[in-house]
Amino acid sequence: MNRHILHVVTNTAHFGNSAHPTGLWLSELTHAWDVFAASGHEQRIVSPKGGRVPLDPRALKWPMRDASTKAWLADPAKMALLSSTPTPADINPGDYDAIYFTGGHGVMWDFPGNEGLQAITRALWEKGGVVSAVCHGYCGLLNTRLADGSFLVRGRKITGFSWTEERLAGVAREIPYNVEAQMKARGAFYKKALLPFMSHVVTDGRLVTGQNPFSARATARKVVALLNGA
């Protein structure tokens, strides 16, 4: 059975310092897209504000510029999907079986406070759908509350880009908050790999999260397994 998956991407093009560009970490979208497409699932992309999606220039260089990202960049139809995205208000949560939050540092600014994304996530979760995120994408789950007022992540195992990885990436002083610490403050049980920048996926029921860009394919495969009833 074909299922419908909603990808969430950022509109933020730079850090608080406008001289430091950021945006979607493209491989986190393309790697998952390839896995979902191979399974025959329908896919759509949404962003907090709609419209154009900037690409993080660091993700367009070796080793992140792999066959998957090159194929996307060379495909006008795929690139058009990132030039004009719908807003959360354009999305009916009832049409989707899973949501997948992509990363790139830009999401730290425009994912957590977006009530439209929170409403979609809550509705999808409460109807039995799969909620997933990779890398900084878990910023989109920080403030999502369920109908009873509790945080969706409270009491659940989760992973995402770690504070250690932020420091190793050299951006710890430029980002607006420590998302690992914020997740723990909301009652989530944060888990990470023994070594930074290694593929690592954590599954807690219908919640699937990957730690970093190298976790995107494994995260998507787990989402597919859940959608297939595995």
TrEMBL record:
Task: Please provide the Gene Ontology terms (biological process) for this protein.
Answer: methylglyoxal catabolic process to D-lactate via S-lactoyl-glutathione
InterPro entries per UniProt? Class_I_gatase-like, DJ-1/PfpI, Prot/Nucl_acid_deglycase
Q: Name one Pfam family in it.
A: DJ-1_PfpI
Q: Which GO terms describe its molecular function?
A: glyoxalase III activity
Which UniProt keywords are present, listed alphabetically? Lyase, Stress response
What SUPFAM superfamilies does its record include?
Class I glutamine amidotransferase-like
**EC nos:** 4.2.1.130
Report which superkingdom the organism of origin falls in.
Bacteria
User: Into which EC class is this enzyme placed?
Assistant: lyase
The residues covered by the DJ-1/PfpI domain are 27-225
Record's GO cellular component terms: cytoplasm
Family under the similarity heading: Belongs to the peptidase C56 family. HSP31-like subfamily.
Q: What is this protein called?
A: Molecular chaperone Hsp31 and glyoxalase 3
Q: Which organism is it from?
A: Komagataeibacter europaeus (Gluconacetobacter europaeus)
Gene encoding the protein: hchA2
